[in-house]
Amino acid sequence: MRTFKKVYIEITNVCNLSCEFCPKTTRLSKFMTVFEFEDIIKKINHLTEYIYLHIMGEPLLHAQLEELLFIAQRYNKKVIITTNGTFD
Length: 88
Hints:
The chain has helices at 34-44, 65-74, and strands spanning 6-8, 50-53, 78-81. The chain is an alpha/beta fold.
């Protein structure tokens, strides 16, 4: 039984821009590990079909994005990525 339409997972809070509309944070910059990501996927696996890789960071900056996507695929998750589309 699915209980959420989607679940947002912040795989990083690092961004390559500083947009006025984004709230600033004092959190330490971090990239989620592959282990952490799979642990979250296991925990939410029965709750949703869709995962969104976006909150405050730019997901395309994650060096292990391909591996994270393979994990999502292994758990039959549909992945939506929100990006700023720049690499400056």
